[in-house]
């Protein structure tokens, strides 16, 4: 009942605002910004730091799709973050240089601008740092150093023109930091809301969700306890608490080796070894999760709560890609919530299907049909 009242109030306020705009002769695009305009429905405003100039965004897009920026000239950022797959890759484990698998499922980059930190264990604090990390990782782009990356860029007249326009940079003053900034600028344009859920929940369009998805939403917010980690707020929903949790996925396998693994990782960190190289090349180290960054025992096996937006487009799931379908993911989450609550959460097969129907209603039209400026 409260939810219906909230939808009705919001709809009435919106109609009053529309009447005022029409009376004043105001332009419609500002009103419709949340309905396919500049800011998608269901997402919070981005910080001022995301207001980048078009030249920087264009440069970032060029860098993002450039396969030359790899050790063998065959890998780009888009190799693992494909626009037609909601900027993921459909693989259990991401494939890098030479077709070798890493240890992580490639997360979608859609709405990554909202993350407080980046990567599954949060090992980089910003989009800028995240954008640079793969270039010199032996399992990803495989370049020997940032100097090798800069050499490719500085030798290309087209890049020199773009960097001059975006940063006012002369050839030898181009930096790796500017490369990271440009790619991050492009990634901040990868914002996708306007899902059927958003239209139903934030615009009050009752027909946007079918009956099964509405039942799934009620379960998601209620008996299934999903919102304890996958948050829905009054004005927006990122479907993540931006925190780190352990579902014990993969942890049991390494349990007998934990003392030796944790000791080794502490030693590697003391030697200033690059964390990403070990995380993406050593399966057992990868399963330590956030511990690899913090060295806190309580963080062993903890990974980021991923957003559930566009989740139906990004199978397989979990940090290691070990869960093939949404149905399996729902089963695993129910098991985890039961363990967390201390008592079993019993859902019928029909209720589980309703949850899946709701999750499918989180797909954005932009993710299903990527706009030209993303490609």
Automatic annotation (TrEMBL):
Q: Write out the entry's keywords from A to Z.
A: Heme, Iron, Metal-binding, Oxidoreductase, Periplasm, Peroxidase, Signal
Molecular function in Gene Ontology: cytochrome-c peroxidase activity; electron transfer activity; heme binding; metal ion binding
- Please state the protein's primary subcellular location: periplasm
Quick one: which residues bind heme c 2? Answer: 226, 229-230
What is its subcellular localisation? Periplasm
Q: Which Pfam families match?
A: CCP_MauG (PF03150)
User: Quick one: signal sequence residues?
Assistant: 1-33
Task: Report the Gene3D superfamilies cross-referenced here.
Answer: Cytochrome c-like domain
Residues covered by the Cytochrome c domain: 55-190, 211-363
CC per GO annotation: periplasmic space
- Co-factor(s): heme
Cofactor: binding details: Binds 2 heme groups.
Which amino acids does the record list as binding heme c 1? 77, 80-81
Q: Which InterPro entries match?
A: Cyt_c-like_dom (IPR009056), Cyt_c-like_dom_sf (IPR036909), Cytochrome_c_Peroxidase/MauG (IPR051395), Di-haem_cyt_c_peroxidsae (IPR004852), MauG/Cytc_peroxidase (IPR026259)
- Write the Enzyme Commission number(s) for this entry: 1.11.1.5
* Modification after translation (UniProt): Binds 2 heme groups per subunit.
What name does this protein carry? Cytochrome c peroxidase
């Amino acid at each position: 009942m409260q939810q219906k009242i909230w939808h009705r109030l919001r709809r009435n306020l919106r109609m009053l605002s529309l009447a005022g705009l029409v009376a004043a002769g105001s332009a419609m695009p500002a009103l419709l910004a949340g309905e396919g305009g500049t800011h998608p429905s269901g997402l919070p405003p981005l910080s001022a730091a995301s207001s980048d100039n078009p030249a920087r965004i264009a440069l970032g897009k060029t860098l993002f799709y450039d396969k030359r920026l790899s050790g063998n000239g065959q890998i780009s950022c888009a190799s693992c973050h494909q626009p037609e797959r909601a900027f993921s890759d459909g693989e259990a484990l991401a494939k890098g240089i030479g077709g070798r698998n890493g240890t992580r499922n490639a997360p979608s980059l859609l709405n990554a601008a909202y993350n407080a930190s980046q990567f599954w264990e949060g090992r980089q604090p910003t989009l800028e740092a995240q954008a640079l990390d793969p270039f010199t990782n032996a399992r990803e782009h495989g370049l020997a150093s940032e100097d090798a990356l800069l050499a490719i860029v500085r030798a290309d007249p087209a890049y020199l023109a773009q960097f001059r326009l975006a940063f006012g940079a002369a050839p030898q003053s181009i930096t790796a930091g500017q490369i990271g900034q440009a790619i991050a600028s492009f990634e901040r344009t990868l914002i996708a809301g306007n899902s059927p859920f958003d239209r139903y929940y934030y615009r009050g369009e009752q027909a946007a969700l079918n009956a099964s998805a509405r039942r799934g939403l009620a379960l998601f917010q209620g008996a299934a306890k999903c919102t304890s980690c996958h948050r829905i707020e009054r004005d927006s929903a990122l479907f993540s608490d931006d925190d780190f949790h352990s579902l014990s996925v993969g942890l049991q396998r390494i349990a007998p080796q934990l003392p030796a693994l944790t000791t080794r990782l502490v030693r590697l960190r003391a030697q200033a070894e690059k964390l990403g190289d070990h995380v993406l090349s050593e399966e057992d180290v990868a399963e330590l999760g956030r511990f690899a960054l913090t060295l806190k025992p309580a963080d062993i096996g903890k990974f980021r709560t991923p957003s559930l937006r566009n989740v139906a487009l990004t199978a397989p799931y979990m940090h290691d890609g070990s869960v093939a379908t949404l149905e399996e993911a729902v089963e695993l989450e129910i098991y985890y919530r039961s363990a967390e609550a201390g008592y079993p959460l019993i859902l019928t097969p029909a209720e589980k299907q309703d949850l899946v129907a709701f999750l499918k209603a989180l797909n954005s039209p932009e993710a299903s049909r990527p706009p030209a400026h993303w490609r």
